[in-house]
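Bumping with the actual sequence this time:
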Amino acid sequence: MSLEQEEQIIIPDDDGVEHLFQVLTVFTLESDQSYVATIPAEQKEDEEVEVYVFRYEEDNENDLKLFPVETDEEWDMIEEILYTLEDEGQI
């Protein structure tokens, strides 16, 4: 099953504790890097939403590998995509 078909994913933190996240959107930048934007599944509707974005790769067994966003340039491109998707009502 591809990430695009998933509605929720489990992401472990640095201590190995697993957290459930709701997938908002999946997108690819011009660099051919794929990203997933998520929010914590336990997020309350009246709370300010914190979006977590990860670069991801899927291997041959459809295992998902997440990587942190590392550069300001990368963040700038991601923010532009997210604002555009939000303006278009896609997230």
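The tokens above came from a reply further down the thread. The helical segments are 72-87.
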